[in-house]
Design brief:
This protein has ten helices and 13 strands. By secondary structure, the chain is of the alpha/beta class.
């Protein structure tokens, strides 16, 4: 065996071992009997792309979405080059993909059963946000995301905010970097609460938030939500996080899936996203369980080596261009299937 090959196998084995150790303190995600039909999702950057994919793939249960600095459905069309250029920083040589073309792809997938019936989106609600200082996903891309949604979602159910000088980040009322920042942890203080705005768009008027989140943080094992039981192979962490208000142990709640962006996973920024993005204090007083699935930074071969599982995802992005699966944007996409399984667990009667 050559030296380089031995090094690759050893590195993969150590990554798998470290991932196992990381999950050793995680618990099984509990069942709470949540209302499945009241499920919603949101995200920033690649998390926004995944939230959109999750909503379109499972529109039968996902009643609303919040999309912050995201891209239209199947924007990359399995091309990393198209993802980096057309879908993030388009120019004359790399135009933004046509929303009508992407609608045709969506409709075809719906007819095949790969995603839910697009007619469900007529009853959905969507909140979109693009920062005027975003240097990573240019505002013109979010314009295309709005135009994509407009094919399905009625105008009175679609809100688009693009009037704040925010960078490429989750926008909060009082936490994070200065508002125009385009750097880690990609959470900025713009004196505007995006979590409140998107949750209110999805669920209607909200009760006032708690002063401080008083519910329970859960570190849960993500392995069981994948058919192969191997999150590493799909650039997912062994552990995810959830925030559960105390009332949800006694009364029926709904589930909101909050998806971090690239380089925002807990392994890189700690609890900044799952504790400080702004969701939890609203969840406390509005019967909402917030689940925070987690990715990992990954590049190279998976483990066991003979599976020939090669993933190039050094920034721990969610799969919106096909690095893990050609079916990443459908119900069969491993990451989408895992998120759906998490929601189903939370909706199971305890």
């Amino acid at each position: 065996m050559s030296g380089p090959l031995r090094a690759i196998i050893f590195a993969a084995a150590m990554s798998a071992l470290l991932g196992t150790d990381l999950a050793s303190g995680a618990e099984r995600l509990p069942a709470y009997g949540a209302n499945l039909s009241e499920t919603s999702a949101s995200g920033i950057s690649s998390g926004a792309a995944m939230a959109l994919q999750f909503q379109v793939a499972h529109s039968g249960i996902v009643k609303g979405a919040g999309i912050i600095a995201g891209v239209p459905y199947d924007c990359a069309e399995q091309s990393s080059n198209q993802a980096i250029n057309n879908c993030m920083k388009p120019d004359a040589a790399h135009p933004v993909p046509d929303p009508e073309h992407l609608k045709n792809i969506t409709d075809s997938l719906a007819r095949s059963g790969a995603i839910d019936d697009v007619a469900n989106l007529n009853d959905a609600t969507v909140w979109l946000f693009s920062g005027r200082k975003d240097e990573v996903v240019l505002p013109v891309v979010m314009d295309a995301t709005r135009d994509y949604y407009a094919n399905y979602v009625p105008p009175d159910r679609l809100v688009y905010r693009n009037d704040i000088d925010a960078g490429h980040a989750m926008v909060t009322e009082d936490y994070g970097e200065k508002c125009p920042a385009n750097k880690a942890p990609f959470i900025v203080n713009c004196h505007f609460d995006a979590a409140e705005a998107l949750l209110e768009q999805i669920y209607g008027p909200l009760n006032p938030p708690s002063a401080q989140p008083a519910g329970k943080y859960i570190e849960f094992d993500q392995k069981e939500f994948l058919p192969d039981g191997n999150p590493y192979n799909h650039s997912l962490s062994d552990v995810g996080y959830a925030y559960v208000p105390h009332v949800c142990a006694l009364e029926t709640c709904r589930v909101h899936v909050a998806l971090h962006g690239c380089r925002q996973q807990a392994a890189e920024i700690g609890d900044a996203f799952y504790k400080h993005a702004g969701y939890n204090r609203w969840a406390d007083t509005n019967h909402i369980i917030v689940v925070y699935p987690q990715t990992i930074s990954r590049w190279g071969w998976g483990w066991p080596f003979y599976t020939l599982n090669f993933v190039l995802n050094p920034n721990a992005c969610w799969d919106w261009w096909g690095y893990d699966s050609a079916e990443h944007h459908t119900k069969k996409g491993p990451q989408i299937a895992a998120i759906r399984a998490m929601v189903d667990r939370l909706a199971t009667k305890p």
